[in-house]
Amino acid sequence: MDVIATAGHVDHGKSTLVRALTGMEPDRWEEERRRGLTIDLGFAWTTLPSGRRLAVVDVPGHERFVGNMLAGVSSVPAALVVVAADDGWSAQTAEHVAVLDALGVRHALLAVTKADLADPAPVLADVRERLAATSMGEVPGVAVSAATGAGVPDVVAALESLLTGLPAPDREAPVRLWIDRAFPVKGAGTVVTGTLAAGRVATGDRLQLGDREVGVRGVHSLGQPVERAEATARVALNLRGTSVEELARGDALLTPGAFRSTTELDVTLARGGWAAGDDARLPAEVVVHVGSAAVGARLRPLEGAAVRLRLATPLPLRIRDRLLLRDPGARRVLGADVRDVDPPELRRRGAARRRAEELAAQPAGTAGAAAELARRRFVRTADFAAMGWPLPEQATAVGPWLLAPGLVEELSAALPGIVARYRQLRPLEAGPPVAVARRALELPDDELVPAVVRPPLALREGRVVVATAGLPAEVQQAVDGIRDRLAADPFAAPDAEELRAAGLGPRELAAAVRDGQLVKIADGVHLAPGIEEQARARLAGVPAPFTLSQARAAWGTSRRVAVPLMEWLDARGVTERLPDNTRRLR
């Protein structure tokens, strides 16, 4: 299916032409038919001779309803510009064309209507010349009289040609369906309509609506139920999980997790009614139009064409979205391209100018994504994709995080210095805890630290350590003395007095345990590495089940050591405690 929107001055015959093309009445409200005036969006469709299905969004032409007009044209790829032969170019025609230009619409057809009332040739020539200076460029033009039917086949043929040249929509893209109507249907519940510009939607899908998810109970397109609709298409979705009262024009149905709602964003000004970079002419407040949404915003010029917007209501936006900024008081419009939906704070003097320079230098596509990732250094992969950036090939993925190319190597090179400084201040500690290393490296999450640890550093018991660092000389000498004694009698754990006499206090003992030179069985009980295997070997010669006294005798040690050692072995699964308090080896 293809979708096209009308544009043009009130009473220039847009709805009449749509009716002639489709055989349908696009004006939905009784007041519209009574007054002969399109107030809200109208919709009609037809099948062209080639078999192409065409949906037409008929927008209001009166200046008072320009907001409704914007809701109709923002999501469609092409426009049908309508100008009456007996009136010609008007102020409202100019405003509608300025909107299309600001939106960057590149595909259009000019229909000069009421050709039975006046010579259409001068209007055709004049309007085509005016359109040539816009984003639409050289536009084909057709003279038509909907009243007599003359020229209607020519409009149909021109539409066929126009639609053939439209770029293919991205049907693999996530869904962002801007709602332009919401209404109840008896027996079905809530129904919403919109133009599906990208992606696909099917019965049973779950879509995000604000901060909750809703289910798609059914899909209609062009008045018929379908299992699935693909872009570009006019669709009506029967929703489960929401009521009409909870919906409004401008809400968006989204693929869950695929978009980032934002209230602050950086944009660069494009074509339109204001001169880009003319800060004095930019209003402090504008209305931002995107899709069917219209949201108030405060505008802060940065420098040149760069502008920061602060929205009154969050919108689900992505990089490269085209917005339309409107100054309702002055009837001026301006296109703006979204450059950042999560911009940095501007606190220091000159920050706005530097930010504008960054935006001006930012390339497009994957090169732009690499530059943006380099600026951020690290970002959650899902967030980066939701911003609209492609994933740079050279980036490093660590769990849910994405790190800029070369950042892992940079941080790995900095980490040994951090560990050395930490040990200089705390010689009895093998190295900084992971959380300390993460803060020193200015990383957002502890889970990123293992990715930057390289030999001779290692992770040990939640710390970043030098694998061969060892203990301070005086502490090592004391530990060696204790281990010499344990080598002769492995279960004769020195008591607290002996440890103090050797110069081993709690901190020194903890350092020896972290370094793997002693094993802490319990408070006040330290033995040499390998004690588990030695204890098992001694118990293997004792008939099972055995008592604590039998184990103590096999080990040749005191109850002070035997009790915690047995409990330690129980906890490690070496021994099993039986109901009668005897044990056996597992």
TrEMBL record:
It comes from the Bacteria. Its main location: cytoplasm. Keywords: Cytoplasm, Elongation factor, GTP-binding, Nucleotide-binding, Protein biosynthesis. Residues 1-170 form the Tr-type G domain. The keyword NAD does not apply. InterPro entries: Beta-barrel_SelB, EF-Tu_GTPase, P-loop_NTPase, SelB_WHD4, T_Tr_GTP-bd_dom, Transl_B-barrel_sf, Transl_elong_SelB, WH-like_DNA-bd_sf. GO terms for biological process: selenocysteine incorporation. It is found in: Cytoplasm. One of its GO terms (molecular function) is GTPase activity. Pfam families: Beta-barrel_SelB, GTP_EFTU, WHD_3rd_SelB. GO terms for cellular component: cytoplasm. PANTHER family: ELONGATION FACTOR TU-RELATED, SELENOCYSTEINE-SPECIFIC ELONGATION FACTOR. This is Selenocysteine-specific translation elongation factor. It comes from Geodermatophilus obscurus (strain ATCC 25078 / DSM 43160 / JCM 3152 / CCUG 61914 / KCC A-0152 / KCTC 9177 / NBRC 13315 / NRRL B-3577 / G-20). The lineage of its organism: Bacteria, Bacillati, Actinomycetota, Actinomycetes, Geodermatophilales.
